[in-house]
Amino acid sequence: MQTKKIINDGNRTVDEMLEGILAAHPRHLKSAEGSPRSIIARDGPRQGKVGLVIGGGSGHEPTFLGFVGKGLADAAAIGNVFASPPPDPILECAKAASGGAGVLFMYGNYAGDVMNFDMAAEMAAMDDVEVRTVLTTDDVASAPRDQRHRRRGVAGNFFIFKAAGAACDQMLSFDECERIARKANGHTFTMGVALSPCSLPQTRRPNFEIGPDEMEIGMGIHGEPGIARGKLKTADEITDEMLDKILDEMAPTRGDKVSVLVNSLGSTPLMELYIMNRRVKQRLDDIGVSVHATWVGNYCTSLEMAGASVTLMHLDAELQTMLDHPCDCAMFRAG
Amino acid sequence: MTSIDTAGLKRMFDAIAVAIEADKDRLCQLDGVIGDADHGIAMALGFGAVRDALASLDLAATEPTALLNTAAKSFLNAVGASSGPLYATAFMRGAAAAKGKATLAGADIVALFQAMAQGIQDRGKAEIGEKTMIDAWLPAAQAATAAQASGKTVSESLAAALEAAERGAEATKDMIAAKGRSSRLGERSLGHMDPGAASAVTVIGAMRKSLA
């Protein structure tokens, strides 16, 4: 049986979504001339500023293009659903974002994205735009601790891009922006849980099978199988399972500060996210870790998948300043 | 067929597009088990874009190299993903191997095939046994080259390539993924054929049928 979606044509969903987004946010966003899948901040790129280009497959909205705007990313390259964009729109983003001080490419660590962004970086070098790449690898479930470089980038992107975007907006040097981006990634930890699958607009078939009473811990944001499947548990038990793993790696000490993101994978409602956040706060209180800021909602989705993720960013004074730095994007504002 | 011109290469790409379109759902299902279920879509999109781009070429005024470069660019820009850079690099290497030739003779076709496989490996940096399309492409290229060297016809060489690709794809069922999205599954990838190796068999099968 095919899933139900409000679409016109499964092959046109990305382009029609982009038309709708540009219609809704003309003050924030435009597409690059002749490259409709390169979304540029109207008030972002400027001379002497390190440019920040993010991007990846569609279907994770508001990631990536919702985080394009002053104080955050200068441009986002948009791929097909769950598929990396090809090099051309990435290159156009790099050119638009370049203020002569270098351009950072930041995106989740997936083989396809790496190949396409690397090809774009080589092409940008031929146009005298220096590109450096910082991959996000916040998904604790996707590889063992000693193989952090193999992990996927998921909802923690939001914190990592935010910190890097702030560094760029503060006109810091290319080296400093890169350092802060890497540090932000190293301080960010995410765990997800999936309850029901999503379906691609072109197939409208569930992209994995899961029993009516099951959940999968650690599932990826494209429905990649996670680390364990089991019976659906209570919100507190699920949140505990995630936090146990995150806190074990983060190893905070009493008095430390974190920022919290409780994110819906698509169809899990705010009600359930806030129930999870209640438990997150209890657990952090128990160990004397204070919450500097909390975000709850749809930040990195997986189409209509049911499920949620919890992300903690372990803050120090520098990262806290970067998170507090104002930004004004189409789908997110701070400060 | 002893040699192939630009029109013959176009027919080959048309045949691949038809074969992949027919195989799309199976490839998506294979990918759904260990990945994100979009491999068939990406491949169909890519070869559909190649077919459309080649349809607008003036074949009489186009050399094989230019046709292959057009195929590379159209595939890449339609797809992105992993298969985009991998197949685009394959066609670009094929284009380089065919440079300066108006028609490709038997040895040229096998050289083109070998260059494509090498391009995929160079771009994706996968080795045999890592459960990727390389497990089909590399043995296929080796089989074709060996058959050619022992005096076999193009048709026989490509038949040997297809057999090797099929064996390679089958062997991915017993491999634990070490590259690409499914590599995070560890042992849970066991027992399932790699969708990229499966689609490689479909591509190579269509090439053999079209070029034989």
From TrEMBL, chain A:
Gene3D superfamilies named among the record's database cross-references: Dihydroxyacetone kinase, domain 1, Dihydroxyacetone kinase, domain 2
InterPro entries the record matches: DhaK_dom, Dihydroxyacetone_Kinase
One Pfam family from the record: Dak1
UniProt keyword annotation of Kinase present: yes
Signal sequence extent: none
TM spans (from-to): none
Alphabetically ordered keywords of this record: ATP-binding, Kinase, Nucleotide-binding, Transferase
PROSITE patterns (alphabetical): DHAK
Protein name as catalogued: Dihydroxyacetone kinase subunit DhaK
Organism: Mesorhizobium temperatum
From TrEMBL, chain B:
Domain DhaL: 7-209
Transmembrane segments: none
Domain of life of the source: Bacteria
Coiled coil: none
Keywords: Kinase, Transferase
GO molecular function, one term: glycerone kinase activity
Annotated GO CC locations: cytosol
UniProt KW Transmembrane keyword: no
GO BP annotations listed: glycerol catabolic process
Record-linked PROSITE patterns: DHAL
Protein name: Dihydroxyacetone kinase subunit L
